[in-house]
Amino acid sequence: DNLGAKSLGESRYRQLLLVQDPQFETHGGVDITTPGAGITTISQSLAKRVGFDEFTPGIRKIRQIGYAFGLERELSKQQIMALWLDTVEMGRGPDGWVTGFHRMSEAAFGARPQAIDEEQYLSLLAVLIAPSRYRIGSTDEALSERVRRIRRLVSGGCAPLDNSDVWFAGCS
Question: What are the structural domain ranges in the chain?
Answer without folding.
Answer: 5-171
